[in-house]
Write a structure and sequence with these properties.
heterodimer; A: 455 residues; mainly alpha; MetI-like fold; 3-stranded antiparallel beta sheet; two-stranded antiparallel sheet; 5% strand; B: 459 residues; 2 strands; 76% helix
């Protein structure tokens, strides 16, 4: 009897709602489809993560691949007779070394007689080689009259050829359009003046006169028009000075503002307005800060263009919100029991903050400050607008009120240069900049992990 | 001169600190518990009152000295020599006098210039010495006056704390001053621009050719300031960037917050943050060096012409930059959805993907939407990537394979190099800057309001 009843109930349910049979083929298929969708979403998500990481890998790898060649320079060993008749012993820095350097180099190819050929031959050597000879003589005046052997850099096309960055021959234009006239599809790379220079270059290689030492020039030289001699020293100094100004302004001001807003400010419309302003400043495009610096600091107050003081002030205004926000977070993390204990033994509210809360919040504040400064170090647009992309060929005359350049603007300037050598220089400069940023962030992480307290 | 004055004032202030503290010790007479404040505060009080006003005075002096002396110089010039000169010629004369005064003499200047230069040097010297003398005198007077106030019951600590309050309020006001400075300076320069170019021509004009002749006889375009093409380019690039960043960023956030193991999360999240920490100039170079040529070759393979500075390359790279931005905002929003919602969905038999799509994403939508809006505002204001990878010439096109220009590119190209603030070309940059500022501000405010208004309160 009950069997029949059960059967009837089951039949009725099936008629009323056929979905309720979980074991039917339909239901199985539905469940399979639902889990299939789940897998699909999972695969999409994993795909997105892998894509993002691959893009990061491609970015770093391509910069490393193009940049590593800039960390060494191709040099040729040249013996130079420091002719005492041509060099002013009293004042060796004033002598012209161009001719002497050229002749010393051309002496290795006595068969070259033609004037035009001689000129092309000496172009294998960097145009800046004469200054290296000059600096050498100035620092070793006792060697005048002797023959010295110096490693002089090659000019950009030959440097790049030796590094394998540019080919000797390139596809002739017009080949793609189908006009193959049978004269060979390749033509001489127009960066080289003639076939002869390549022969001379091969002679240098065959005589084993070339070497590829580490490029200290990249770090100790200032900017130069010749990529083989261009370095980052000027940009380092400019960035350092601008960051110093930025730190000196944004650190004390940021902490003071954060302490006021977090610990003392009454809750009223004024403090609300300040908070809204800070939040909005954090999202203002950096180029607008450049416009502000241009209009206010340079045009209104009459400060000079291109100087680290103005650059640092613009960066400070940009960094300020970051420092204020992180300082407030650090102050908030200090538990009220500390404040209450200090108040309980009779400290004034200011003493509570200055003697107890602030020291405990300091690691968090420093972490935020370093992260803010790292952002400021990579910032380019405002510096570009106030002209901190000056061409600085010497590092002797640098100061807060002297025209300067900075690391990111140097990268921008090199990235725009047509010489092939600047491509690898730019990548190398980017690697150096990223190296700095990584170091700063590591310091911040270290500070956080070493000193941060859990209450 | 100013540097040494600062050092003198600092020394004076330190001296004030020691003298004030020493006076407090003397007043206490060995019973330090009888002082209202510790001697330290007496010292700080004197030091602050000596240092702060003199420092402010010297700063104001330095900033005002130049315009005041300039005005005096102009008045002192022989009226006969300067009548009939235009403003440009006057400023030329002024800068000639200044360079002569600094010793940089080109050719042989007129006697009136040399005479004026001598006068300028003389005045500058007087002004500098007057500044030093005034500041030191005020510092000394304040030092003596405040030191004499120190007594046993003098409330030095309260005064110092009051001063501290003022300093902290001043620091907070700097945020307001910055916003104020941005708004005022952009508005003033923009108004000067709209004096020359009608407002509606700027807003609705379809032609942007800012290269107007600055000197006579220079061959340039006619000069047109219709901002529509520039804005179309900006939005085109921002749109491409969002098409790259939103799917990848959102999907990555979903995977990291719902599917990934804790260990994978700990490795992948910092790696994505590296992507966010890379300076934009690096992305710009990456676009020029790798992405644009790769796209060009790919296009050539398909037989499509892609410009080397196409909107596609710049937008795609900008999208890469914004991936971590979107993913961290979405991740935060998804993680903020309470556990109970998740578990309720699982309890009803929903799969993970059904939970995510039908429960978590709708609950997290305000947070995700505001993150996307902030990313759009970033994309519009981003400068270096487009300066390096996008075009300069404004063409009114929606074709992503063609070169377009953006607001920020125009601002930078119009202002780079030396330029005076008296022609529509440079002023146009400020007008563009003002619209950019207002646009990003509106997006930010809107993003914050979305979160505030639509966020569900679950607890």
């Amino acid at each position: 009897m009950t069997d029949i009843l059960d059967h009837q109930i089951a039949e009725r349910d099936k008629l009323a709602n056929p979905r309720h049979d979980w074991a039917s083929d339909n239901a199985r298929r539905r469940i399979k489809r639902r889990y299939g969708r789940d897998r699909l979403l999972r695969i999409f998500g994993l795909g997105a993560v892998i894509t993002a990481l691959m893009l990061l890998a491609i970015l770093i790898a391509s910069l490393t691949y193009t940049g590593y060649v800039a960390f060494y320079t191709t040099k040729v060993k040249v013996e130079i007779f420091l002719d005492p008749q041509k060099i002013d012993r009293e004042n060796p820095g004033k002598t012209k070394y161009r001719k002497m350097t050229k002749q010393a180099f051309n002496a290795y190819f006595p068969e070259v007689k033609n004037r035009k050929d001689k000129r092309n031959l000496s172009k294998i050597l960097s145009s800046g080689a004469q200054y290296i000879v000059r600096d050498y003589v100035v620092s070793h005046p006792e060697l005048i009259g002797q023959t010295v052997s110096l490693n002089l850099p090659l000019s950009d096309p030959f440097d790049q050829l030796q590094k394998g960055v540019i080919p000797r021959r390139i596809d002739a234009p017009g080949k793609n359009s189908g006009k193959n006239d049978g004269n060979g599809e390749k033509m001489l790379n127009p960066r080289f003046k003639s076939e002869k220079v390549l022969v001379w270059f091969d002679t240098l290689v065959a005589r084993d006169m070339l070497s590829s030492p580490f490029s200290w020039e990249l770090f100790v030289n200032a900017d130069s028009r010749f990529p083989e001699l261009a370095g980052l020293a000027g940009a380092f100094t400019g960035s350092l000075l601008a960051l110093l100004v930025c730190f000196l302004i944004s650190f004390p001001v940021g902490i003071a503002a954060a302490i006021y807003l977090e610990e003392f400010a009454p809750k009223n419309r004024f403090t609300d307005f300040v908070e809204v302003n800070i939040n909005n400043l954090a999202a203002v495009p950096s180029v607008v800060f450049g416009l502000l610096a241009l209009a206010v600091f340079i045009n209104f107050f009459g400060l000079p263009r291109s100087v680290p003081l103005v650059g640092g002030m613009a960066l400070a205004l940009m960094t300020l919100p970051t420092i204020i926000v992180s300082t407030r977070a650090a102050l908030k993390a200090v538990p009220p029991s500390i404040r209450e204990a200090a108040l309980g033994v009779g400290a004034s509210r200011h003493e509570v903050v200055l003697h107890h809360v602030l020291p405990l919040a300091m690691p968090g504040i420093l972490t935020g400050t370093i992260i803010g400064l790292a952002q400021a170090l990579g910032e380019t647009a405002p510096l570009l607008l106030i002209g901190m992309n000056a061409f600085i060929p010497s590092i002797e005359n640098l100061g807060l009120m002297e025209p300067a350049t900075a690391l990111p603007t140097q990268i921008f300037a090199w990235g725009d240069s047509p010489e092939r050598g600047f491509v690898s220089r730019t990548s190398a400069a980017i690697l150096v900049l990223i190296g700095f940023l990584v170091m700063m962030n590591l310091v911040a992480i270290y500070l956080r992990q070493k000193f941060e307290r859990k209450w | 001169m100013f540097g040494s004055l600062l050092i003198i004032l600092l020394t004076l202030s330190v001296l004030g600190f020691y003298l004030g503290r020493q006076k407090a010790f003397v007043v206490a007479g060995g019973k330090r518990s009888q002082l209202h404040s510790r001697p330290l505060y007496h010292g700080l009080y004197v030091a602050a009152l000596v240092g702060i006003p003199t420092l402010l005075l010297s700063l104001i002096w330095v900033f005002l000295q130049r315009p005041v002396i300039d005005a005096l110089l102009l008045q002192s010039l022989d009226p006969k020599a300067i009548t009939g000169l235009s403003i440009a010629e006057l400023s030329l004369l002024k800068s000639e006098i200044k360079s002569v005064a600094q010793g940089a003499i080109f050719g042989d200047p007129k006697p009136i210039v040399i005479e004026a230069a001598d006068r300028l040097n003389h005045w500058r010297e007087i002004a500098n010495w007057a500044m030093v003398a005034t500041c030191i005198a005020i510092g000394l007077i304040v030092l003596i006056a405040t030191r004499s106030k120190i007594a046993r019951l003098f409330r030095a600590r309260e005064r110092v704390e009051h001063l501290l309050d003022l300093l902290m309020i001043a620091a907070s006001v700097l945020a307001i001053l910055t916003t104020f400075g941005i708004v005022v300076s952009l508005t003033i320069e923009s108004l000067r621009f709209f004096d020359r170019i009608p407002f509606f021509e700027f807003i609705f004009g379809l032609n942007w050719e800012p290269q107007i002749p600055i000197r006579e006889g220079q061959v340039t375009g006619g000069g047109a300031f219709g901002a529509i093409p520039v804005y179309v380019g900006t939005f085109l690039i921002a749109l491409i960037a969002m098409l790259v960043a939103i799917p990848i960023g959102l999907m990555a956030a979903i995977y990291l917050s719902e599917y990934a193991s804790r260990k994978m999360r700990a490795i992948v999240k910092p790696l994505l943050e590296i992507l966010a920490g890379i300076p934009t100039v690096v992305y710009g170079f990456f676009a020029v060096l790798i992405v644009a040529p790769a796209m060009r070759n790919f296009g050539a393979m398909l037989g499509v012409e892609i410009a080397p500075n196409s909107a596609l390359a710049a937008g795609a790279v900008m999208g890469i930059m914004l991936i971590p931005f979107i993913s961290s905002f979405s991740d935060d929003a998804i993680s903020a959805v309470p556990r109970s919602l998740r578990e309720g969905a699982y309890g009803l038999g929903a799969t993970k993907s059904e939970t995510i799509i039908d429960v978590l994403l709708p609950a997290a939508l305000p947070g995700i939407a505001s993150g996307i809006l902030l990313a759009v505002s970033r994309a519009i204001g981003e400068t270096m990537i487009v300066v390096m990878a996008a075009g300069i010439i404004a063409t009114l096109t929606f074709n992503p394979l063609a070169p377009v220009t953006t607001v920020t590119v125009q601002i930078v190209t119009l202002l780079i190099g030396d330029s005076e603030f008296d022609n529509p070309k440079t002023l146009a940059a400020f007008a563009l800057g003002l619209t950019l500022f207002l646009l990003t501000l509106a997006l930010n405010v809107f993003a914050l309001r979305i979160v505030r208004k639509y966020r569900e309160q679950y607890d």
